Amino acid sequence: MTKHLKSMSPIDKLKRLTGENVKTHAESSAKKVQIDELRRRIDDVMARRNRHAQNELRQKTSVGKDNLQEYVAGEEIENELGKFFLASGVVHASSRHGYRNIRETFGFDMTAAAMLANNHLISGLSCADALFLDTETTGLAGGTGTMAFLIGLGWFEEGHFHVRQILARDFGEEKAALAYLADVASRKKFLITFNGKAFDVNLLTTRFIMNRLKSELNLLPHLDLLHPSRRILGHRLANSRLCTLEAEVLGVEREGDIPGWEIPQRYFDWLKSRDGRLLAAIFEHNRLDVISMSSLTMHLTEILMAQESVQNATADDYLAAARLLLNRHDLEGAAKIFNIFQGQTCGELSSLSKKQLSHLYKRTGRWQEAVQIWQEMAAEKPVEFSAISELAKYLEHRVHDYHQAKLLVEEALGEDNVFSEEERESLSHRLARLERLSSKKN
What does each C-alpha distance from 307 to 9, 99, 317, 318, 344 come to in angstroms? Predict the structure, then answer.
């Protein structure tokens, strides 16, 4: 008994002294054997279940590979890192995409493309060096858990537009798919994407790192079309999504297109069922995205180059392009756009755009054009405050005609105009100064 007490833990001794039930060493050992046996049985059941699930997945995968080719024209490709599915297509020069034939998207101006990208390196390249890229992913928010399961690529070659679509049919094929992408990208010199700087390229760079693969994709000069599209076309669109630009600017009408938010779940459903019909619409959606980027690139570069025959381009589009050029310190390019408005009444411009154009004229020293717009705006009812203010400043500081400036402000204040209290106070202050200057001159 004494020996048994010595072998007991302090907690067991305390329980014995207080009268609590204390299990013997033999009882504890028996209980442990029972628990171990129960765990073994559970492990056996789970192992059988996992083997069954893996067999089912292999069977579905085998069926899915054949089934996919019934709905998507492509083939299985194998490289040193594994297998993936590749769909290849050629959009011929005579093919129509919205308002343009594909041949009309060739040969966009590289200086304009460089200006859109704000990267001078692009100006020394050619259209054939461009790689258009768009991805479809397992999530729209990004993050390390998001994978680009479909990577759409496009480029100009031998007078046609070539499209390649790389599909990782499951997560195990991602590494081989990325290796193929890296190989194609290594033969191109710059990227064109739509929102690729914020999403596609960052995501792919992360996936390359996670798969321990080398890629210089993120080092290529990059024209992200989203940002210049917002700056040049966003003023007249509800939003700057590619599908909106297609419909409102490029004349592209998609029928039965799958919405972007539905794409991730379609891929997860594909992983379970291996039904190729689930992916067919995603392939078509991605293909059209890639083609539309080529058309959008041409549209934007033509406006930036002040070509007047751009279909579905408005005067405000050209004005927005001029602002972009001035912000990039391209005074010569902006002047070419200004020449479009030379001698015109700018009647098709909105009131805000007229004001902005006159400001750009003033900023570049084209005073006569600026004055013409201010005079046109001053003749409209109700009178625009900025027109009266700018004309008065011009007459005062550049022409030194204080009397004429005074009459202009007096007339504006005497009429029933919708000036704000601040605007009226500003004109009254200017009028007082003009009266002093006018009296001194006399």
Answer: 92, 16, 12, 9, 17
3-class DSSP assignment, residue 11: helix
Average pLDDT over residues 211-215: 93
Residues in contact with 376: Cβ distance below 8 Å, sequence separation at least 6, in sequence order: 345, 346, 354
Q: What are phi and psi of 140, to 5 degrees?
A: -95, -10
Give 274-319 as a DSSP string.
--THHHHHHHHHHHHHHHHHHHHHHHHHHHHTT-TT-TT--HHHHH
**CA–CA separation, 246 vs 186, rounded Å?**
30
What is the 3-state secondary structure of 83-127? Answer: EEEEEEEEECCCCEECCEEHHHHCCCCHHHHHHHHCCHHHHHCCH
How far is it, in rounded angstroms, from Cα 63 to Cα 429? 82
* Closest-CA residue to 135 (of 207, 68, 55): 207
Confidence band for 19, pLDDT divided at 50, 70 and 90: low
Query: Which value, to the nearest 10 degrees, does the dihedral of the CA atoms of residues 381, 385, 390, 396 take?
Result: 100
**Phi and psi at residue 44, in whole multiples of 5°?**
-65, -45
- Confidence label for 9 from pLDDT (cuts 50, 70 and 90): low
Q: Decide: 374 and 355 in contact? Cβ < 8 Å.
A: no
* Region of poorest pLDDT, from 125-134, 159-168, 255-264, 407-416: 407-416
Question: pLDDT exceeding 70 applies to what percent of the chain?
Answer: 85
Contact predicate 407/435, CB 8 Å: no
